[in-house]
Every structure is written in structure tokens, then in C-alpha cells.
Amino acid sequence: MDLKLQAKTKGSKGFVKLIKKNLVGWLLLLPALLCMYFFILRPMIIGTYLSFFDMKGYTPTDFIGLENYKRIFNDSMFMKNLINTFKYVLWSIVIGFFLPVIFSLMLNEMAHMRATLRFLIYLPAVLPAASVSLLWYFVYHPSAGGLLNMLIANFGMEPYVWLQDSKHTIMYIIISMTWCGAGSTVLYYYATLQGINREIYEAAVIDGAGFFRRILTVSLPNISGIVLLFFVRQIIGVFSVMEQPMMMTDGGPNGASMTLGLQIYKYAFRYYKPQFAMALGCILFLILLIITCFYYVLDKKIDKMNG
Amino acid sequence: MKAFNDMRGALLNTEMKQPRYKALYWAMFVFLLFYAVVISLFPVVWILIAGFKDPQELYQIPATLFPKEFDITKLFEVWNQLKIYKYYFNTAYMSIGSVVLCLLCSGLAGYALSKIRPMGTKLVNNIVFWLMLIPGTMSTVPLYMTFKEFPIFGFSMMDTYWPIWLMGAASPFNIILFRSYFNGISNEIVEAAKIDGLSSIGIFRHIILPMGQPIFLVVGLFTFMSSFGNFFWPYLLISDENKIVLAVQLYKLKSTTFTQDYQMLAVLYSVLPLIILYAIFQDKIISGINIGGVKG
Amino acid sequence: MKKTKTISMILAITALTGIIAGCGNTDNAEEGKTKITVWGWADKDADPDGYALGQKKIEDFEKKYPDYIVEGDQYQFAVDTFAAKAEGGALPTLYNSFLTEAENIAKLGYAKPITDLLKNNGYYDMFSDYLLDMISYDGEVYFFPKDVYTLGIIANLDIFEQAGLINEDGSPMVPNTFEELADMAKIITEKTGIPGFVQATTNNVGGWLFMPIAWGYGTKFMEQQNGKWVATFDSQECANALNLIKKMKWEDNSMPAETLIDAEGAIRLVGTGQAAMTIGHPDMAKGLKNYGLDINSVGMFKMPAGTAKRVTLLGGGVEAIAPNANDEQAEAVLKWLEFDGYTPNLDDETKQRIEEDYQNRANKGEIIGILDSSVWSDATDREQYTTEMIEKYRNIDPKNVASYNDKTDIEYQAEEPKNAQELYSVLDSMLQEILTNKDADVHDLLEKAVSDFQNNSLDYAE
Q: Are residues C395 and C369 in contact, defined by beta-carbon separation less than 8 angstroms?
């Protein structure tokens, strides 16, 4: 009782308590904040700063202003890689965006084997990206023994070169990425769908809404927020894609699957030009920043729409 | 049909008696089943089957789905020759380290932001949110320089797992997860504990830890699984043969003298632990998705 | 409160000690002794014989030079991670690399200059001129050449036999020109259904392996005009070379479906009987046995001639000293190299060392009998002794590699002087396009490749 009283009285004790609370709070925050400072914030600042310098190996030598940027813009590969990167994003929207929405809506209706379906659909999502890339490398293998070539051979078709068909390489890589990523997106949407109160559907039925009408007026608006979030996340993720083309095609054939991310890697670790890597990183960041801002504007609108 | 009683979707139980809705339902069911079995599962199974073929058989025309013989000893052969055990150990070591540091740093930070709320909490919340949006690719070189020579004391973290562990600890997303979960723990309990004389750490140990068990488990699982497949940084930073991890070795296999069938079985070994883990903890993982699905 | 602090402290301390313990183990040599680390050490578990041999070598060395301490390091050169190691100061004192990377390494200061060291010890004058040129940068020598090799054609003779390409005396038929190579590849594919030739196209290796074909047809890649470097390979000669590949792929169908592969991928195809021939160097041919190919089925031929000349690319392994090594360590490294038998000096000890080395290789089943070129300007005693040892431990049938071992009637050419890696990358891309796009126009490709290479790389060459 005595303690309680003391705590409630303002005064020097209260002040000490305030200090204590702040001290403890900040001490607990410190490890995480330090890590985030050193491994997220500081690299970003340093990277921007050093992108204006010439370097010998990893040692900055002279301040050269925008020279690195000029050189990147002059590089004939830059435009090609930028367009390629946008192609990745585009394909990921075409393939990877609608599919999870449809799947989650279907899964939401299931009364049979729901757990099994859920388990299997999510399965690829737990696999490491490196394994998935190599797995699909074999699925797409251009010899007769590749999985897809074996399948089309059953229909009497000649083996096809898949990843080596430069017109579609990006699409094939995106298919493999979607295979891995879609499962988790489906479950996120599904979780949100499960949260919808059934009475809303029943009310819609009374208003005379058919099944598809209910999907349009009830289900979709309810998941639109999280769909938008994943949409933006997906764009950001795909825009900086690097590991998958690195493992599956090394950017080939003839640069058909090169991305800005892979270019950054090559500048930094194949051609010993880290200054270009950092300048290109900044360009990449600016583009993503624009996309993110776009998201905020959209998100506000959707929030308003949903009341 | 009793099975339809627990349906939770837009289809109503009453509608299921109508043939066209029934048809729609089963069409969707078949579609999903096809996807789940043929698209999701089959490639993984195929890699196992194909891995049993010898290299000549892999290229043989016409190709066959099943190998001439299933020699189960081949699995052990690959296990020994590729030293899978070594890479399992290294990868597990790296992943567990990430999990420990991540739970500790992010958990404490989430607790501080949710329950202690020192001055500046709002600011920190905002910073944490914005940090989440910075793409890692852009900072490849500066991060690399940080690991090569840490800004304080100038020591190097090359050939250690520390870069991976510390990056695991620096996860804004996990801090947000912890914070929003702890927000769900009622403040009254915390206040009552304070009155009972528990210190902040005492509260963390005796209230937050037991009550937040699900979130610790979920974040730990997700961190472990993503860490297990970590490729890029271990590839760049670790060249000590004795510390190389699974994903890196998998990539390197493409340029080593092991034939394609061995590489295929190596892929299988690289996914096996995660599939097992997933099978054991699937409920936790799926409930984790429900927690993580909370927007923002 | 106290607990909070303790926990934070413990966190911080464990973090720091862990980090510090994980690094900085470079300079803890015993008092007054000079310690060096040496690359390429065998793994204790995977290759116990090689490891034991290495440890014994160290023991003997330290007995002879008590002031030095040597430690083995498993380091092997790899392009993507080299810069990481070099920057992190994690290179062994003596490390290896390849001539093709020499320019970049020297330019970035990742190797210690050794001109004076070599002059003081009298080795400087023993290098042949063309070699000296390849290991120097800006007037300083940075590398110690270990072995020199030239590219040739690697063949799977099992497939040759199936295709009837074995002479009556049992020797394989050898293509003397690239046309003949294409014809043979075609015959192989027609008779056996196995692709006759495979070309690597990724990791800049494709372009590198393509150089002898381009040169053979008379391609000039670059020249200096008024102090500026200009790319000159948008020419009929280079087009002819590329057309050879195009013809093999699309007209003769004698190349495999797999295109995006590196050198090891190509060797894997030859080794597992999925392709008959590829371009490579002796070490790559030695790699065939890892795929279960019998030694008697391994063949290696001299690089065929193009329409202009018969020329091959001269490549090689080099040894370099880590940039952070001091002069004493550099001296110790040179002593080690002498001891190990990589200098032209030959005494009984070196003889024994060389013999042991070949003995160990023979025990491991490594192919012995494909002759490398000579590092030293004149045939030295050491070279002769090495040749004797190769003779003694030879396990490959001489007639299968006779063509390659005959070093007459062929020109050697070093790599292009500027931006060689970037050039290979451009060539990689062209080869990939030609091998994946049936309708690729070689002249358009060349025009674009030259403008890319000029604009993105050569314009910045000093």
C-alpha cells in the first residue's frame, strides 16, 4: 500500500522514476537501434556519399561530383538493364499479382482438405531462394532430361531451350520466383479473408447479390489494403532482384535477363568498380522511393474509400 | 452434406444445394488440388526421382520419368561425398545465432516500444518503419565495407557469421511484429506487476515472455528459415572452407566437378530440413502469418 | 535496473569479444621469426596424403630456414570473392591467381611489387620477354609465374571411336583447321547423335576461350590510335570466326542445347559423354577424370588453324604476394618458392621435391603426360628434370596428346592489352546470342559489341 501511494505522489520520487523509465527503455532499445544504425542507415548514407567519389579498390580517392552517375548513364547497358528490370516487375505483376488473389478467394471457399491444400500451397515458400533457383534451373534444363522438356515430349514436342530463349527468359525466371513467393501471399490474403464476418455475406445475399457480386463487393474491398501492401512490397522486392538471375542465367543470354541489382553486384565484385555500384544503388533507391510515395497516396485513398 | 457446415467463405450453405454452385465449388476444388499437387509439390518430388539417375541417363533420349534403378545408397553417397553434414552444421549454427540475436534485440526493442514507452518512442516508431523500406541491394558495397572494417575499432568480420547474426538483429519488420503483438497484452497486467514491485526486466521475464510465447516462436521460426537459405552475404564474406554454408555450396556446385544427379540430390538435401520443420510447426507458421498479416 | 545493465553489458561484451576473436590472426609470429601463409593447402580430411606431404614440406623447410614459419592455407583464387579477401587483408602471404586477372590485381594494388626482390636474386633476367611483359604493370613486376599453358582442343575419345574417328595406329584423328574441326563435329553428331563440340559462354570464360578462334581467322581486337585505344573487331575476320560457331550450331546441329554454361559445365558435358570436344587448357583436360572418364579416353589436340594463322592463347597461373606483407615475408616467400622447385634452380632437394610431387599426383590418379609450356627463357635443368619426371610417371597414352604436346608450328599470343575481362564479357554475350538465336545477324552483333566495348570500357582505358 505504501509503495502504491508513493508512486502516485508527484515530486522528486516521480522524477527519478521518469528518468529510470527512460533509461531502461532506451537501454533495451539500444542493441536493436545500434544494429539498425550500422547495418541499414549508415550504409545507406555512406553509399550515397561515396557515390560522388572516385575509388581505388574500396578506398575513396577524389571527389568527382557526378562523374560516376554520368558514366553509368553513358553506359549502353544501363538503359537495357533498367528496361529489363521493369520487365521483371511487369511480369511479376502479370503472373504474381492476380494469381494469389484468385487462389486465396478459392481457398477461402474450401470445406474439404483445407489444411492439406494450405500446407501444399505454402510449401514452396519455405524453401531457400538458392535451392529454388537451382531446382528450377533443372526444371527448365534445355536437354531432354529437363522436367518441362520431358513433359512436352509426351505431346510429341521437341525439347525447348526455356531460359535460353532470350525473348522469354525474364518470364521464366519470374515464374520460378512466383512459384516460391505466391504461397505465402495467398496465405496472407486468406488470413484476412477469414476475418470477414459471415453476416456481411448473408446481408449481401438478402440484397440479391450472387456469388461473384459478393466477391466483388465484400471480399475484394476487405483485402484491398493488404493486397496493395503486398503489391508494393512485391514491386520493391522484384525491382532489386539479383540472386535469381545470378544463379539461373548469370544475366544471359546476351544480357536478356540482366537486372540493375545484378549489375550492381558485377560492378562491385567482378569489375572492381564499387563507386559505380554505389551510384547505381542510389539510382535504384530513388526509383523505389517514388514507388513508395505512390503507395502512400494510394493507401490513403483506399482507407478513405473503406471509411 | 455435413462437410459444408464449417464453410467460412462467400458461398452459403444453402447455396451448396444448387447444382451450379456445387459445380463451381468442385471446379475450384479441383483447380486448387491440381495446383497444390502438380505445381507446388511435384517439382520437389521430381528432383528426388531424377537425382537417382546417372548422368548418362539424365541426357538420354527419349527421357524417362523414373530412373532405371532406385539405389538408396546413393543418398548416403551424396551425404558423404558432398559433406552435407558439415554444411548442415554450419548453416544451423549460423541460423541459430541469427535467431538468438534477433529474438533478443527485436524482442526487447518491441517490449520497450510497446510497454515502457520512453521519451521519443513515436520518433523511433517512425524511423523503424522507414528503415523497413530501404532495399538491401542498394547498400551492398557500403555494407560490405562495414563488414570488412567496422567503423568503430576497425576490426574485420570477414570469415565469421557475425555479419549475418547482426543483420538478423537489425530487423525493423520483426520489431514492428513484436511491438504490435505486445500492444495486445493488456496494460493492466503490466501495471499490476509494477505495483507488485517487479522491475522492467522482471516484467519482461515473468509476463511478456510467457504471454508472448507465440510471437517469439513465430519470429524465431521465420528467422531460422530465412537464415537457413541465406546466400548472398555468406557467399561474399565467408571463404573459409570450414565455415561455408549450404546455400553457398549449392551455388558453387554448378562450377565443381560433381555431376548433375549429385547436384539434384544436393538441392533435395538443402530443402529437406525446412520441409521437415514446416511439417512439424505448420500450425505455428500459419498462425504467424495471421499475426504478420496485420497491416502496417 | 541492475539486471538491465548487466544484460546489456553482457550483450555488448559477448558481441565484441566474438567479433574480435573472429578476426586479426595475421601477425602473431613467434619472436624474431617471420611467418608466411601459403595458398592451396590440401584439406586434412579430403586429401590426407596431400596434406601430409604439405606438412612434411613445411617441416623440411623450417629445418633449413629456422627463421621462417610457414602455415598452409586452403585459399584458391576465385574471381567474385578475390576482392573481398584482398580488401579484408585476408589473403595468404603467398596466393595464386591467373594471368588473365593480373592487370586488375596489379592496378588495384592487391599484390606486392617484387621487381627488386627478383633482381636481387637474379631471377629477373631469366624470364622470357613475353612473359615479363605479362607479369608487369607500369614497370613493376607483381607476379611470379608458376606455370604457363596454352589452349587446345579437349576430346572424349570414346565418342571418337564410336564415330570412327580413330586412325589405324590407334591415334585419334586431329583437326588441323577449324573447318576440319567443324566437319569432325558434324560427323560425330551424325554417327552418334552426340553433339560434336561445346563452347562455354558464361562468366567471361566463353570469350576467353573464343580468342584463339578469332585470332586464327585474323581478328584484330584493338589498337592504339593517337594515344587512344580503339576497338577494331567489327571486321570480316571476326565475323568469319563467329560464323563458324553459328554454322556448327544451326546448320550442322553439332552443338548441345545447353548454352549458358561455364568452362566446368563444358568439361562436364565432355566428361559425361554428352559432347565430344571443347576448347580448354591441360588442367581442364585433367578434370575429365572426375566425371568417370577413363584416362585412355582423354585426348588433347593442338589448337586448329584459322584462315589466317594457327595461334593459341597463352595463359598461366601466377603466384603473388599479399600487399600487406613486409620485405622479410616477401624474401621468405621467394625462399619457399625456391624450395618448392618453382625457380630454375635445381639441387637434390628440389629434385626430390619435384619427384614427390609427381608421385603424389600419380597416386591420386591425376593425368600426367600433357606438356605445359615453359616459364623460363631457356630450357633449364629444371625443365629437363621435370620433363623426365613426367616421362617417368606418365599415365596417358602419348599418341592421344601427341598433337598438343608438339609445340612447333603454332604461334603464342598473350591476352589483349586493355580491358580484357570486359572484352570477354562482350564476347560472352555475342556467343550467347548466336547460340540461342538462329536468326542472329553476326554483323549487327559485332557492330553493337564494338560500340558497347568502346563506349563502356575502352574509352576509359589509359
A: yes
In a domain, B66, yes or no: no
Judge whether B154 is closer than 8 Å to chain A, CB to CB: no
Please indicate, yes or no, if residue B56 is contained in any of the structural domains: no
Q: How far apart are CA C412 and CA C374, in angstroms?
A: 12
Greatest C-alpha distance within chain B: 78
The minimum CA-CA distance between A192 and chain C, rounded to whole Å, is 38
Say if residues C80 and C204 touch (Cβ distance below 8 Å): no
Residue B44 within a domain = no
On the question of pLDDT at B7 being above 80, the answer is: no
Give the right CATH number for C32-148+316-364 from 3.90.1150.10, 3.90.226.10, 3.40.190.10, 3.40.50.920.
Answer: 3.40.190.10
The answer on pLDDT for A8 being more than 60 is no
Grid coordinates in use for A171?
Answer: 518470364
Phi-psi region of C27 (alpha: psi -120 to 50; beta: other; left: phi over 0): beta
Say yes or no for a CB contact (<8 Å) between C437 and A166: yes
CATH number at residue B132: 1.10.3720.10
Cell of B68: 532405371
In this structure, the strands spanning C152-156 and C228-231 are unpaired
Do B28 and B116 sit in the same domain of this protein? no
pLDDT at A70: 93
Domain C152-314+406-460 has CATH 3.40.50.300: no
Strands C222-225 and C228-231: antiparallel
Taking CB atoms and an 8 Å limit, are B63 and A268 in contact across chains?
Answer: no
- At B8, is the pLDDT very low, low, confident or very high (cuts 50, 70, 90)? low
pLDDT tens digits for C269-310? 999 899 999 999 998 999 898 888 999 999 999 999 999 999
Residue of C nearest to A30 (CA): C8
Which residues constitute the domain of residue B6? 1-37
- Output Rg (C-alpha) for chain A, integer angstroms: 26
Residues B93 and B9 in one domain: no
Same domain, yes or no, for B31 and B169?
no
Inter-chain touch A250–C202, beta carbons under 8 Å: yes
Residues whose CB is less than 8 angstroms from the CB of residue A22 and which lie 6 or more positions away in sequence, other chains included: B118, B119
* Helix or strand run (H / E) with residue C98: strand C94-98
Instruction: List the one residue out of A106, A115, A240, A99 whose CA is nearest residue A181.
Output: A99
Tell me how far CA of residue B127 lies from CA of B130, B173, B183, C28, in angstroms: 5, 12, 18, 44
Residue B43 lies in a domain: no
Fold of A76-305: MetI-like fold (1.10.3720)
Helix residue spans in A140-252 (DSSP H): 147-153, 169-194, 198-206, 211-214, 220-239, 243-248
Angle between helices C236-246 and C442-456 (to 10 degrees): 120
Nearest to B156 among C43, C88, C274 (CB): C88
Distances (CA, A) of A231 to A101, A294, B176: 11, 12, 20
Q: What was the pLDDT predicted at A11? A: 61
* Same domain flag for B1 and B117: no
Find the residue in A nearest to C421 (Cα).
Answer: A271
Q: How, if at all, do strands C298-302 and C34-38 pair?
A: unpaired
Residues B213 and B281 in one domain: yes
Q: Distance between CA B67 and CA B96 in Å, rounded?
A: 37
Please indicate, yes or no, whether residues B5 and B146 belong to a single structural domain of this protein. no
| Spans of all domains in chain C | 32-148+316-364, 152-314+406-460
- C-alpha cell recorded at residue C449: 559489341
| Integer Cα distance of C450 and C445 in angstroms | 9
Prior bond to B62 cis, omega within 30? yes
Residues of C within 8 A of A250 (CB-CB) are 202-203, 260
Is A263 part of the contact surface with chain B (CB cutoff 8 Å)?
Answer: no
Rg over alpha carbons for chain C, rounded to the nearest Å, is: 24
Domain count, chain B: 2
